[in-house]
Structures are given as structure tokens and as C-alpha cells.
Design a protein that fits this description.
By secondary structure, this protein is an all-alpha fold. Helices cover 61% and strands 0% of the residues. The protein has one domain. It contains 16 helices and no strands.
């Protein structure tokens, strides 16, 4: 498989998972706000902080309210992190790799794109949005099952699953962020009247679990009532629930072993797994959960960086040996080179896979967030997409 094809199916997997989890995130946040009293200091701007789009939104809209925020995050085509923008990129990656994915998968993706486009062109009221979230989540799950049961579990499938694993781990931390951002600062003023605190916590964390379809699994593993620390521990460290960060990292590790030259990427995965497993959740909830999640997301971004350098990123010309076919010489200016993923095992250890020179997207690249040093470091957590458009950035103002 050419590294350019591997890169596209990798981003196909990432966008598929991002669309589903973005719908889950907006659904749970909307439900949570409607369940909480209006006196809490929680607004729609938190969604912009979690997705890293506050500055982009501020340049287009001045008022932070339910309808403009959700329309921006769902349907705004100038926002590369919106659900519809990610769906366009998913469709484009599927269209250009139709030779390696099942025909039924392409049809399903195309239908999902057309249905979403029709939905966002009409009413965007609360019930319409809720129906759209349900449709996106169910169609993405159906597509994941179709790929699992109808696609050969070859290199292309492996890269799709690697992309989904990285994105799922990252998005789970963002959904946990909803609970931590909401509870820690917003409910601080209720500290002296403890009877307010407990019902709010239950509402928030139950919605978090339901957003990940994790409520039943949580109650089966942990028989006590829903508590913030137990929910965070379950979603970060559980080894059996598929949407837990630890499980996603373990699955990612297994898929990497099927590819050549995976050692550096595997080390990055194991580093993140060690950080997750060693976390003391109870103490983090008291004083440092937000900083820990920031660190975790940056570490997940490091996995992507290592993966790109190993199989997608351009490097110096490697010395190919034995039966490896050397590409024909082409001009340096505007040149494109590819090497097959299968030939990587015959490249010396210092050499990396050569990806095609990336064509600049016609769409403008988002400006970097100008915020505190912490926010600048956090922006690393969402790498730019190699599939023709930048991915969602993770900068978040404190």
C-alpha cells in the first residue's frame, strides 16, 4: 500500500470517529445544561473552549448563545472543526480510496453526507438537532460495523482502526473535560452549602456516561451510585470498556504490531498508557484534573506525530535495498514521491516512509490561538490533518 493511501484511510478513520464523538459531545452538553438550574455559571462558551474554537467564533460572532454556537459547531463550513466540515473531509477521503474500502462503506458515507447536508439546510431547532445527533451516531456505528465485518483486515483496515483509536482516546478526554470544566469552577461558590453540590454532580456525570453509552457498563463494574471520581477513573483507566482511554490505547498497541517499523510509535503509545494508569484520580479531582487532561491530550498528539514521521512524513532519501523499487527521478519543485508501506521492513532503521508532498489546501489555515503559554502548549494536542484540511485544534483558554 502506498503511504499516500495509508494516510488517507488513517484520516478516514479519524474523521469517522470525530464526527460521532462531536455529536455525542454536543448532545450531552445540551442535555446537561437543560437539567441544571440557570443560576450555575455554565454557558455555551464551554463547548467553544473544549473544541478550541473560541477565537475563531469570536471573529465571526459576538454573542455566545445556544443557537449561534451550535450552528457554528455543527454546520459552519468556514469552521474546519464543525461536524459538516469533518463530514466533507470524511467523504473526500472515502472517495479517493474507494479501491481499498468496501463499496457499501462508500455508499453509507455518501448517504450520511447528503442527509446531514439536507438537515442543516432546514430548521436547526432543539428537536431537529437531537434527531440529527441520533442519526449521525447510529450511522457512524453502522459504518464501523460494516467496515469490521465486510472489509479485509489488511493494512488499510489497520490504518483505519489506528486512526479511530487515536481519535477516540482524544475525544473521550474531551467529553470528560465537560464534567471537569463544569464542576470545578462553576460549582465552587456552592462549596459552603453542600446540599447543592451533590445533585449537580450526579446530573453532570450521568450525562457524561450516557454520552458515551457507558452508563450501563459503569453500573455493572461499579455498583455504587454515580460519583465524579469513579466516572473519571472508569473512562480513563478501565481495560474492558471500548470507549475508555486505556482500552483504546491497548487496542491501538495491538494494531501497531501488525505494521513494520512500529517501535517508535508503540513507545509513544506506552508512554500515554503509563500516564493514564498512574493517574491518582481522587487527588486530581481536588486540584489538577484540568492540567492532567491537557497533558494527556498533548501526549496523544505525540502518538500522531510519531506515526506521521514513521509512515506519512517526508524525510531524506533512504537507501533502499534488495527488491525495493526506487521511484523514478523527478524534479524537486512540486515533486511527489511515494513508497509502499509494505517495503518499510526493508528500509534501514534510520529511514522512514516517504509520503507525497502535501498540496496546500485552498481553504485558509486557522490562525494560532494567542493565549497563555499553557494554551499554546495545549494547541499541539490536535495535529493538522494531512487529508487536505486542518484538524480541530485543542487550544483552550483557562
Amino acid at each position: 500500500m502506498l503511504s499516500s493511501v495509508a494516510e488517507r484511510v488513517y484520516w478516514l478513520g479519524r474523521y469517522l470517529e470525530r464526527i460521532e464523538n462531536s455529536a455525542r459531545l454536543m448532545d450531552v452538553y445540551s442535555s446537561m445544561l437543560f437539567d441544571l438550574p440557570g443560576t450555575t455559571d455554565i454557558g455555551w462558551g464551554v463547548l467553544l473552549d473544549i473544541t478550541g474554537e473560541r477565537e475563531n467564533y469570536a471573529s465571526k460572532e459576538g454573542r455566545i448563545d445556544e443557537m449561534p454556537v451550535l450552528k457554528f459547531l455543527i454546520a459552519d463550513q468556514s469552521n474546519y472543526s464543525s461536524i459538516f466540515s469533518c463530514m466533507k473531509l470524511l467523504r473526500e477521503n472515502a472517495r479517493t480510496t474507494r479501491e481499498v474500502i468496501p463499496a457499501e462503506a462508500w455508499e453509507q458515507i455518501n448517504d450520511l453526507y447528503l442527509d446531514t447536508k439536507a438537515s442543516i439546510g432546514s430548521s436547526m431547532g432543539r428537536q431537529a438537532r437531537r434527531n440529527l445527533y441520533d442519526t449521525i451516531i447510529s450511522d457512524c456505528q453502522r459504518l464501523g460495523g460494516l467496515l469490521s465485518s465486510c472489509m479485509s483486515h489488511n493494512t488499510a483496515y489497520t490504518f483505519i482502526q489506528i486512526g479511530r483509536g487515536i481519535e477516540r482516546a482524544d475525544m473521550t478526554t474531551r467529553i470528560v473535560d465537560v464534567g471537569s470544566i463544569s464542576l470545578l469552577p462553576a460549582f465552587k461558590k456552592y462549596g459552603q452549602v453542600g446540599h447543592y453540590m451533590e445533585p449537580f454532580e450526579n446530573v453532570v456525570w450521568m450525562n457524561i456516561l450516557r454520552s458515551l453509552s457507558a452508563y450501563q457498563a459503569y453500573r455493572q463494574h461499579i455498583h455504587n451510585r454515580v460519583k465524579g471520581a469513579e466516572v473519571v477513573r472508569f473512562l480513563l483507566q478501565d481495560e474492558e470498556f471500548p470507549r475508555a482511554v486505556n482500552y483504546s490505547l491497548s487496542a491501538l498497541n495491538r494494531y501497531l504490531e501488525q505494521l513494520p517499523n512500529h517501535e517508535e510509535v508503540q513507545r509513544a503509545v506506552l508512554r500515554v498508557k503509563r500516564i493514564t494508569c498512574d493517574a491518582k484520580v481522587y487527588s486530581l479531582l481536588e486540584k489538577g484534573l484540568l492540567d492532567f487532561i491537557d497533558e494527556l491530550q498533548i501526549s496523544i498528539a505525540d502518538i500522531h506525530d510519531e506515526l506521521s514521521k514513521t509512515w506519512f512524513g517526508p524525510v531524506e532519501e533512504p537507501e533502499l535495498i534488495e527488491a525495493v523499487v526506487v521511484p523514478k527521478a523527478i524534479k524537486k519543485t512540486g515533486s511527489k514521491k511515494t513508497t509502499a508501506v509494505k517495503t518499510m521492513s526493508k528500509v534501514p532503521a534510520k529511514a522512514k516512509a516517504k509520503a507525497p508532498a502535501k498540496t496546500k489546501s485552498k481553504a485558509p489555515v486557522k490562525a494560532k490561538a494567542k493565549s497563555s503559554p499553557k494554551a499554546k502548549a495545549k494547541s499541539k494536542a490536535r495535529p493538522k490533518s494531512a487529508a487536505k484540511a486542518p484538524a480541530k485544534k485543542a487550544a483552550r483558554k483557562k
